[in-house]
Amino acid sequence: MVRWTILDRFRPVGAPGPGGPAGVPAADDQGPAAELVPVFSALACDVAACESLVAEARLSSEREVARAREQAEAIVSKARRETVTERAKASARIEWEASERDAQLLEQARLEATALGQAGLARLPAAVDHVTNSLLASSPEQQ
To answer: Is 11 helix (H, G, I), strand (E, B) or coil?
Structure first.
């Protein structure tokens, strides 16, 4: 089999000088495809290697995506578990703070009640004297 090259596509033309036949393709039936066959057959190994690399990269990326999804699911699951715990802690803290406030308010109310009671007791002798004097003054025996 004869190997064709790009130069074989044209018929040789005469030397410079008077006009002669123009160069035209010598083998119209072969065309550019015949010229490219050796190039593509030389590249076949490289194309196969590239296809193999692409297939490996796809598998690797699928594994990475699967691993990332598993990690994301684990993170979400952990966050959901921690949410329940954190809500319970927050609820307990709020209840404790409310109990502390209530205890402080109750103690303040006791102190105020004691102070009012002592103030009332301090005024009691004067009030008793006033009431007894008023009763004695308005009693029918003295009139």
So the answer is: coil
d(CA 58, CA 139): 114
Which residues, 6+ apart, have CB-to-CB distance to 27 below 8 Å? 4, 8, 9, 34
Confirm if 8 and 25 have CB atoms less than 8 A apart: no
User: What confidence tens digit (pLDDT) does each residue in 48-101 have?
Assistant: 999 999 999 999 999 999 999 999 999 999 999 999 899 999 999 999 999 999
Which pTM does this prediction carry? 0.42
Q: What is the dihedral of CA 102, 108, 114, 120, to 10 degrees?
A: -110
Q: What is the spatial distance between Cα 112 and Cα 61, in angstroms, rounded to a whole number?
A: 74
- Distance, CA of 86 to CA of 76 (rounded, Å): 15
DSSP, collapsed to helix, strand or coil, labels residue 5 as: coil
CA pair distance 36, 49, nearest whole angstrom: 20
In degrees, rounded to 5, the angle at the alpha carbon of residue 72 between the alpha carbons of residues 71 and 73 is: 90
Structure tokens at 90: 């927050």
The SS3 call for residue 122 is: helix
Where do the H-state alpha helices sit in 1-143? Answer: 31-138
